[in-house]
Every structure is written in structure tokens, then in C-alpha cells.
């Protein structure tokens, strides 16, 4: 049986905002009982980015969820890389700057993985690459999730949307490292200030001193990436060397772990479609005109439907990357189906 994907066409933001409750009503098809907590997974955009999904859509979604009987909140995780979203304080400030505040959206915004991305839950998953996923500690406790995902290009996986939002976007810092890198972190002695904070915080006692320099012992390192979060000198470095194929497959496996046992609804925004992801802290030009909003209860189907609509532009944006890998692997491991039925509203 094919998965149902709902399609709300439109290029004007005002029209899409007005009609979003119709789409959500068809998608969720019923209310929530017992004031159920419902987490809305968002991406607030990096500082300087202007093409992330605007907070206005989260505001409309929050209002809909409240009227349906839910107790909604927004959530996100800290980044692996050093930036404005690398710790909870800066992340919350940026979220408010971009409109994701209680006052403007009507629901609180939570960081799901601790002050620096160190708070994780180990979730078993039967994957090709992943046996135990490091998921943000709040995520397993969320009974219902609504994902607001921006469909755009991505240099590692060809595109990013729902699968990316619930893999990289729900992984704790150690999980993000597991997806992105084949190796353990290392310390740049030229940048290191020898403060020793990384050594104090390492749960595996994997950081030692040699000749006055701090070094990470690979045999002891568990890949939790906690040292990255505590290093204010940005001396703990990452090799962004994971091959596109395996990284794309890891994304599907992490999404499977994050969504395990949950009631979940997925909404993809085919607007402001850029070559690169919203983690880029710069203004980017769209590579395709706005298409509208797609939604489904199947994360693979909704991503597949979006890709089918803009496949030529996404393929041209990253010719060296196969965007189908994450979809094919997602179907293979039971995350969802690629075969879908599109219903236009």
C-alpha cells in the first residue's frame, strides 16, 4: 500500500500560512487526549541565514496543536561545529532573534541535548552502520512529534529535509560526530591554551598530556564529542571525512532510532530552496521557485515526493552526490516507503 502525501501548493507566504491549518487537520486527523505533550522539531537557522522556515509557520502550528488538545513546545539540538548554535545559551538567544520565542510563537523553545550537546540517550538500532545511536536525551521522552522541515540541498547527502531533521537534528553531539566522521576528534596544539578543561570533562579518561600538550588517545576515546563542546579555544578539531554514501545511510538509521515508538507527523517546506543547508550563516539565493508544503505520516515518502518535484535542480547542485541513497536505505531498514500517493489540497 502506498503512503499518502498531502500537497499544499503555493508561492505566497501569506497564503501558505492561512492554509496550513487545513493541511495539519488532514494530516493529524483528530485531537490529542490527556493534554499530551507534543514536540515540534524545528531548525532556527544559523546566524546570518535568512532562508530557514520562518517562525510564523511554527506559530500557526502551535495554535493548531493547542486547539487540538495538545501541549506543544518547540525543540532543537546543539550543533557539532563551533557556531552560534553550539551551546544552549547562544542557541536560545539566536532562536529568539529569529522569532522562535514564547512571546512570538506561543510555546517554549527547548534545547534537547544539554548545555553543550553532551546529554544523550543510547538507543539500540539494527542498522548497517549504527548499533547504538546517541540521541538527544529529551527526544525519547517526547510521545508525539510534529516535524517542520526545510527541503534544501546538502553537500553531504544531496538534500536535507525530514530524514535529516530527525537524524542530525535529533542526535546529541556524539551522534552527530558518528554520522559525520570516520575518525575521533584531535587537538590542534597551536590553538590549545592548555587550560585542561577537556581532560577534566572527558568521561573516558581519553585525554592525556605528552610533552606539555594535550592529546586524545584514540584507543580510549568513545567518540562522545564532549571535549568539542567544552573547548572555548576551538582547539578540538573534527575530520569531516565521512563518505557521502555511508553518511546518508547513517542519517536514515539515526532517524529510525529517534522516531522509534512515536506518533509522528512530517511537514516539508518546499520554499526558499537553496543549494546548501540552513547551517550556513549567510544569505543564499534559491535554486528553484517556491513550490508549497508537503506532509505525510511517512518520513521517507514525504522526502521522496519533495525530491521528485525538484530533482533536476538538486541533482545539478551537488552532482557528485546521490540524493537517493538516504531514501533507499530508509526504505530498506523500515523507516518508511518510497512509493507514495500524492493528494493535492
TrEMBL record:
Chain segments annotated as transmembrane: none
Record key words, sorted: 4Fe-4S, Iron, Iron-sulfur, Metal-binding
InterPro entries per the UniProt record, alphabetical: 4Fe4S_Fe-S-bd, 4Fe4S_Fe_S_CS, DUF362, PSI_iron-sulfur_center
GO molecular function per UniProt: 4 iron, 4 sulfur cluster binding; metal ion binding
Family matches, as Pfam families: DUF362
Highest taxon in the source lineage: Bacteria
SUPFAM superfamilies: 4Fe-4S ferredoxins
Domain 4Fe-4S ferredoxin-type positions: 183-212, 213-241
Keyword Acyltransferase belongs to the record: no
Keyword Iron found: yes
Matches recorded under PANTHER family: 4FE-4S FERREDOXIN-TYPE DOMAIN-CONTAINING PROTEIN (PTHR24960:SF83), PHOTOSYSTEM I IRON-SULFUR CENTER-RELATED (PTHR24960)
Protein name (record): 4Fe-4S ferredoxin
Lineage of source species: Bacteria, Bacteria division TA06
Amino acid at each position: 500500500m502506498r503512503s499518502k502525501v498531502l500537497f499544499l501548493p503555493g508561492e505566497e507566504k501569506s497564503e501558505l500560512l492561512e492554509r496550513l491549518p487545513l493541511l495539519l487537520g488532514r494530516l493529524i486527523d483528530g485531537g490529542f487526549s490527556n493534554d499530551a505533550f507534543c514536540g515540534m522539531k524545528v531548525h532556527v537557522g544559523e546566524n546570518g541565514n535568512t532562508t530557514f522556515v520562518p517562525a510564523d509557520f511554527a506559530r500557526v502550528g502551535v495554535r493548531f496543536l493547542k486547539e487540538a488538545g495538545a501541549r506543544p513546545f518547540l525543540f532543537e539540538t546543539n550543533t557539532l561545529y563551533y557556531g552560534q548554535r553550539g551551546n544552549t545559551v547562544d542557541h536560545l538567544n539566536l532562536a529568539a532573534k529569529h522569532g522562535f520565542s514564547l512571546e512570538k510563537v506561543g510555546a517554549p523553545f527547548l534545547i534537547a541535548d544539554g548545555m553543550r550537546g553532551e546529554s544523550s540517550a543510547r538507543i539500540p538500532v539494527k542498522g548497517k552502520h549504527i548499533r547504538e545511536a546517541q540521541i538527544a536525551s529529551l527526544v525519547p521522552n517526547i510521545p508525539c512529534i510534529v516535524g517542520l522541515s526545510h527541503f534544501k540541498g546538502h553537500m553531504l547527502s544531496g538534500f536535507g529535509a525530514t530524514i535529516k531533521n530527525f537524524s542530525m537534528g535529533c542526535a546529541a553531539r556524539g551522534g552527530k560526530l558518528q554520522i559525520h566522521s570516520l575518525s575521533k576528534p584531535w587537538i590542534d596544539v597551536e590553538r590549545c591554551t592548555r587550560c585542561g578543561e577537556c581532560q577534566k570533562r572527558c568521561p573516558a579518561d581519553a585525554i592525556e598530556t605528552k610533552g606539555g600538550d594535550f592529546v586524545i588517545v584514540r584507543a580510549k576515546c568513545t567518540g562522545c564529542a564532549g571535549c568539542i563542546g567544552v573547548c572555548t579555544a576551538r582547539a578540538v578539531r573534527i575530520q569531516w571525512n565521512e563518505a557521502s554514501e555511508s553518511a546518508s545511510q547513517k542519517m536514515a538509521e539515526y532517524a529510525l532510532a529517534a522516531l522509534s515508538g512515536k506518533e509522528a507527523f512530517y511537514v516539508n517546506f518546499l520554499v526558499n530552496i537553496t543549494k546548501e543547508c540552513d547551517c550556513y550563516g549567510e544569505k543564499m539565493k534559491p535554486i528553484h521557485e517556491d513550490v508549497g508544503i508537503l506532509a505525510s505520516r511517512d518520513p521517507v515518502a514525504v522526502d521522496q515526493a519533495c525530491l521528485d518535484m525538484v530533482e533536476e535542480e538538486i541533482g545539478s547542485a551537488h552532482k557528485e552526490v546521490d540524493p537517493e541513497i538516504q531514501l533507499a536505505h530508509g526504505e530498506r531498514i523500515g523507516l518508511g516507503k518510497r512509493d507514495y500517493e500524492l493528494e493535492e489540497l
